[in-house]
Design goal:
The protein contains 4 helices and 19 strands. The protein is an alpha+beta fold and 361 residues long. The strands form 4 sheets. The chain has a 6-stranded mixed sheet with strand order 1-9-8-3-4-5, covered by helices on one side. It has a 6-stranded mixed sheet with strand order 10-19-18-13-14-15, with no helix packed on it. Strands 6-7-2-12 form a 4-stranded mixed sheet, with no helix packed on it. A hairpin with a 4-residue loop joins β14 and β15.
Length: 361
């Protein structure tokens, strides 16, 4: 809760800062993701040895104008409204630095932020505006296969030129597991220190790939192993200010390579294109077999009809040349058909017919 004095100071400060003689600096732009932090610098460069008496930060969005974020007066810094517990004055006011740190950025935070600094016994007000763009939250969980490489990003967005003093990466395989150092870098000293110079879980596999001059402490992990799965926490130190980010890494084991057999190719494991090809091959095979069978039947029928025709013609010629033989031949054939009823009678009849043929002149 605000005291009556604080509530009375807000409108007074607004009227006091927005005067006709204000010195306004051109707007800067900053892009962050939801959940990240943003450092908005506001430094008044002046050779005069005058102390800062007031610092105000206001916000203007799509439907909001000049909403108070934070104000500083009489050595008291007070964040206001929805920015409470998220906005912090991190600049050194003694050195005319009124920089603002906004943590856990939300989508509604997108807009224009204006800083106003006033020096004692000075009518001129220094103003600086910044446009903050908010992007969707970055994935906090990354997946990688065993043996591959992966980049883990860690960037502290800031409009203020502030040198990174140290970058730390630590690893924890579980919630209650002991942390181990992955990488430690001191950009000012140009020193890169791993877990150990001679041994360690990440030795010779981790490298700093981010540009620390732009507050980027990203790393590259090569030759990922199954034991690398867990939580990785990055810490970027800018003097007394620290930005932290945690990433969960999930490692996917490599599947053993096996030779696929025809019986192992099930429909559910095949793609749509493979199914179409297989169905097409089966249909084509069945069609070719049907055509082949029809051709073979037709060919066989033609071959069998030729001997039958020749046999008929041969019998006709035989009738013309030997009529009597044809008659007895027919009789003999008839007697042979009766052989099925009585074998004895057929033999006698056959002998009789043979005798008649021999006696005939």
């Amino acid at each position: 809760m605000f005291s009556p004095l604080k509530l009375m100071l807000v409108p007074v400060l607004l009227d006091y800062f927005l005067g006709p003689n204000d010195l306004t600096v051109s707007s800067l732009e900053l892009t962050v993701h939801v959940g990240d932090s943003a450092l908005m610098g506001c430094v008044f460069q002046s050779a005069e040895e005058k102390r800062v008496t007031k610092v105000d930060w206001t916000f203007s969005g799509e439907h909001i104008k000049d909403d108070y974020v934070l104000y500083y007066y009489a050595n008291l810094s007070v964040p206001v409204g929805r920015f409470r517990n998220r906005a912090h004055l991190v600049g050194d006011v003694v050195h005319k630095d009124g920089s603002l740190l906004l943590q856990n950025v939300q989508e509604a935070d997108q807009g224009t932020y204006t800083c106003a600094i006033r020096l004692e016994r000075e009518s001129l007000v220094f103003q600086k505006a910044m446009v903050l763009y908010v992007l969707p939250e970055e994935p906090k969980e990354l997946m990688v296969h065993v043996g591959d490489s992966i980049r883990m990003g860690c960037v502290f967005q800031s409009t203020k030129e502030r040198c990174v003093t140290k970058v730390d990466w630590v690893f924890s395989p579980g919630e209650h597991s002991k942390e181990e150092i992955v990488l430690r870098s001191f950009p000012k000293l140009s020193v890169l220190v791993g877990y150990s110079q001679s041994w360690g879980h990440f030795q010779n596999r981790v490298s700093l790939v981010g540009n620390t001059s732009r507050n980027d402490g990203s790393i590259m992990l090569q030759g990922v192993r199954e034991s690398d799965g867990g939580n990785y926490t990055c810490s970027i130190h800018l003097g007394s200010l620290t930005f932290r980010k945690t990433i969960m890494l999930r490692v996917i084991p490599k599947e053993p390579r096996t030779l696929a057999t025809p019986g192992a190719l099930r429909p559910e494991t095949l793609g749509n294109n493979q199914l179409v090809i297989i169905v097409g091959i089966v249909c084509t095979t069945v069609l070719l077999l049907s055509v082949l069978i029809l051709v073979m039947k037709k060919t066989h029928g033609n071959k069998s009809s030729v001997p039958s025709t020749s046999l008929v013609k041969s019998l006709e010629n035989t009738k013309k040349a030997h009529p009597e033989k044809h008659i007895y031949s027919s009789i003999t054939t008839r007697e042979l058909m009766e052989e099925e009823e009585s074998s004895g009678k057929s033999e006698a009849t056959y002998m009789t017919m043979v005798s008649m043929i021999l006696v005939q002149p």
